[in-house]
């Protein structure tokens, strides 16, 4: 254990004991009738948050008479803002000068039960948010598998936790809840654009003169090892344009480099207006733009999970990560994974995406039954 971690535990353990909640077993949890529940999941990864939405549904279904609020990070508030299983979203953000206002909002929610969700890490901050909420009972993951001696000193009930994702990411999020009796039959993910976001997306479509059944692609990813070479996205945009398709390029804050390369290589010789770049927009607006697309091409990254939640026909490109664990469960999302790795001095996770050639990806993308086809067949719901 590092000196920093030991120091944190030395400071946090007495605080945890001071905030200790009354013990609870699964039977006692089942007997609770909370009026308000607080769920804490303030990690930053968008894909992980989308994968956690079935857990939010499971909690709301287990206590149908309760209102549920979620604490999340600024990076994910747009993903869950319109989630039908949430009555409120509270945003935990730095700098610390904003902490007093957040704590006032947290205490004003007046939760009877707080549930601190974990994924591949244990967050002391999340645990403290649950404990400082004022909820009589606080349920959270066992911190010991993550290397922290903390949860046993303060939580009413510990859920099992694991830093290793050995099943699908959605099941990994649900497994701790299942262990304490909070079950889920429906594991589909949820992202809901607001009416305002849908109107903004419609205005973008009109301004760019996209028309119906445009194709969309997203050439970036938060993890560099998950990025298919951008010039190959340009090649596929060329092919789609040559086939008479309009192509919309989506992007996020982490995609500046990929977008710059795309713009530089796509700007020469391509038919005017055949490929257009979306303006910078919120996640909900990007989701509404995706909802209007005939099909989508992307790397294994957060926007892939948004497309899966919206059941957009999507070709998702995988390299070092396993689609059995990370591909959205929607049948409309097809994973194409690199079968081999090219030598790459950057490390063992690199070189996979580079081995996927343009022809293979184009054939898979062009052969998909797009949204227009599924709508005609009555299978788009």
CATH fourth-tier homologous superfamily of the largest domain: Glycogen Phosphorylase B
Distance between the termini: 51 Å
Helix content: 25-40%
- Mind telling me which CATH architecture of the largest domain this is? 3-Layer(aba) Sandwich
Instruction: Give unreliable regions as ranges.
Output: none
Q: Class of the largest domain in CATH?
A: Alpha Beta
Verbal overview:
The protein has helices at 3-18, 26-31, 46-62, 77-80, 99-109, 124-132, 169-179, 195-207, 230-242, 256-266, 283-291, 302-310, 323-326, 358-366, 371-376; strands at 36-40, 67-72, 88-91, 113-116, 137-141, 157-159, 215-218, 247-249, 275-277, 295-299, 314-318, 333-337. By secondary structure, it is of the alpha/beta class. It has 2 domains: 3-179, 3-Layer(aba) Sandwich (Rossmann fold); 195-376, Glycogen Phosphorylase B (Rossmann fold). A 6-stranded parallel beta sheet has the order 3-2-1-4-5-6, sandwiched between helices. A 6-stranded parallel beta sheet has the order 9-8-7-10-11-12, with helices on both faces. α3 packs across α12 (302-310). The model has no long low-confidence stretch (mean pLDDT 90).
Give the topology, please.
Layout: H1 3-18, H2 26-31, E1 36-40, H3 46-62, E2 67-72, H4 77-80, E3 88-91, H5 99-109, E4 113-116, H6 124-132, E5 137-141, E6 157-159, H7 169-179, H8 195-207, E7 215-218, H9 230-242, E8 247-249, H10 256-266, E9 275-277, H11 283-291, E10 295-299, H12 302-310, E11 314-318, H13 323-326, E12 333-337, H14 358-366, H15 371-376
Parallel strand pairs: 1-2, 1-4, 2-3, 4-5, 5-6, 7-8, 7-10, 8-9, 10-11, 11-12
Helix pairs in contact: 3-7, 3-12, 8-11, 9-10, 9-14, 11-12
